[in-house]
Amino acid sequence: MGAKNSYWFLVLVYTAFNLAQAVYLYIGFIQGIDRELDEAAIIDGCNDVFLLTKILMPICKPIIATEAIFVFIYGYEELIFSLILLSKPEKYTASRAMLNFTGEHSTDMEPQFAFIVSV
């Protein structure tokens, strides 16, 4: 399938694992919005695309930002899939590259801290 050492497949796996949480959060947020807002926009002649892009999208900015932060944190700290799917050192993610600073019996902390700051 060409999944080994492929960023696209890694993004697909991350998306699949974060999709359930995103749907759950978005549904909860959208259900908290008053239905009268949608009805008023439809009465004023708003079609579905305009309703979504001009009315609901600005209201949903907080949940979009929240989910973006959650996905970034998950992708940054996730290690298992990058260990399985990436074997070329130039394709390592940040968490996978941090393993280069650990040995069998010791951890070299100074270069690890410098790596964290530079990433």
From TrEMBL:
For this chain's UniProt record, which GO biological process terms are given?
transmembrane transport
The record's section on CDD domains has: TM_PBP2 (cd06261)
GO CC terms of this entry: plasma membrane
The record's listing under InterPro entries reads: BP-dep_ABC_trans_perm (IPR050901), MetI-like (IPR000515), MetI-like_sf (IPR035906)
Keywords, alphabetical: Cell membrane, Membrane, Transmembrane, Transmembrane helix, Transport
Q: How does it sit in the membrane?
A: Multi-pass membrane protein
List the PROSITE patterns hit by this protein, alphabetically: ABC_TM1 (PS50928)
Principal cellular location given in the protein's record: membrane
Task: Report domain ABC transmembrane type-1 positions.
Answer: 1-119
Q: Where in the cell is it found?
A: Cell membrane
Top-level division of the source organism's lineage: Bacteria
A single Pfam family, by name?
A: BPD_transp_1
- The residue range of the signal peptide is none
Q: List the transmembrane segments.
A: 7-27, 63-86
User: Record's PANTHER family?
Assistant: DIACETYLCHITOBIOSE UPTAKE SYSTEM PERMEASE PROTEIN NGCG, MALTOSE TRANSPORT SYSTEM PERMEASE-RELATED
Family to which the UniProt record says this protein belongs: Belongs to the binding-protein-dependent transport system permease family.
User: What is this protein called in UniProt?
Assistant: ABC transporter permease subunit
